[in-house]
Specification:
Elements: H1 9-22, H2 35-42, H3 46-58, E1 62-65, E2 69-72, H4 79-82, H5 102-105, H6 134-146, H7 162-176, E3 185-188, H8 191-202, E4 208-213, H9 217-225, E5 229-236, E6 239-240, H10 242-248, E7 254-257, H11 271-284, E8 287-292, E9 316-321, E10 333-336, H12 342-352, H13 359-369, H14 372-399, E11 404-406, E12 413-418, H15 423-432, E13 438-439, E14 451-456, H16 465-477
Parallel strand pairs: 4-5, 4-7, 7-8, 8-9
Antiparallel strand pairs: 1-2, 3-10, 5-6, 9-10, 11-12, 12-14, 13-14
Bound molecules: pyridoxal-5'-phosphate (PLP).
Pyridoxal-5'-phosphate binds next to helix 8.
Length: about 475
Amino acid sequence: MDRNAPAALYQQIYDGYRKAIVDGSLHAGQRVPSTRMLASELRISRIPILEAYAQLLAEGYFESRVGAGTVVSHSLPDQAAVSEPRGPRATKTRSGPRPIAKRSESLPPVENLPWRRGWGPFGVSQVAFEQFPFQIWNSLVTRHCRSIRAKSLDYGNPMGSRGLREAITTYVRTARGVRCEPEQIMIVSGSQQALELTTRVLLDPGSSVWMEEPGYRLARGVFTFHGAQVVPIPVDYEGLNVAAGIKVCPNARAALVTPSHQYPLGATMSASRRLQLLDWAESSGSWVIEDDYDSEFRYESMPIASLQGLDRNARVIYIGTFSKVLFPSLRLGYIVLPADLVERFLVVRLAMDISPPTFGQAVLADFICEGHFSRHIRRMRLLYGERRSALMESLRKEFGFAVDVTGGQAGMHLSLTLKGVDDRDIAKRAAHDNLWLVPLSSSYVGKPLRQGFILGFGSTSREEIPAAVGKLHSLVAI
Ligand SMILES: Cc1ncc(COP(=O)(O)O)c(C=O)c1O
């Protein structure tokens, strides 16, 4: 016993016995000293010993029989199964089959991609973190912290809080041309959970799903995990090539599209392609999943209305997120559901995570309702607009007109296509130079048709851009 150790005496006794049983030093049926004997041997009071014995009895390490005293339990599983090896070699010492689901094996291991690690010039999915209205946000957080009551501790509404859903309804109707009622909105922890839920509700193992090629890598993992067949469909300057999709796989169950700002090449889906896609969905009984992840920021025209707003047949599942427009660690997004799918999404949600956490929703609802959200969007649109112009200008200066720059009309990234380069190799080298380039080739399911980089400008200041583009140019030239 160590009276100066931070662990309480009863904990030390408990740990000592448990360890001795688990590593086999004490065997089944072996008698342990009475609490009185142990107390006098250790020269401590009986109280911590009684507490430790009670815990060991409750957990089944000890058993006690009238007249026989307390013994190590006879019903402990095999020593090998009880023992808990720790450390890097632990799994090697385990025996017997350790089956896991085939579908979890279907996902490739997490790649330690060097360009994903950093914070700095060209980081994709990074917003102007330092420009966030911290004071306002903190005061709303404080307000809600102070008003936590017993009721706040209960599960929330599985669809999300009513207040936030109403605020989102007003916003998406006016800013995105989405047609919906608050009852159709489900709050989720970002687009990723929205895709997960949508896949669970709409796709069966073996269902085919169109994905833009090149497209959003993280969506592919969700579809693959659920056994869906990803069918890559090429994109061009008008967005997804619907005719090509119909030719390759007319009976797909769903199509995932980013019509406002195709990820990663940046095309805005043309009106005729939008209508063609909706027509196909209607005639083939398919669903359209619209990922509208960064459409708040458009620099050369007014925001383009959503595909959902054009749909007259309730075929579109619209996904919005606060990751780009506010910040990604918030982990809040929403799905606008066709009315007849609400009940199915609800039961699947209940089976999945019951309901979204309530605190962040309450803060965000106030942030929107008190006008801070629209003010922040206006400020960020100006800021990102400046950053994007600085980036386009620097790219032209360094690379001239020999390179293809696409997608800079909206969002917080653009794509630079280069000929005759190995973009992964350059991205690896660039990461050593604190330049965070996502290789364009990594967005392809099939053979990459383009090499180049996705360049984020959300978190790259105007002043940093010329030097960063200069570095990029010299890396490409090597
Ligand atoms: C195409 C696309 N959709 C959605 C997201 C946002 O995902 P989430 O809302 O899960 O943070 C991103 C983020 O980079 C994206 O690139």
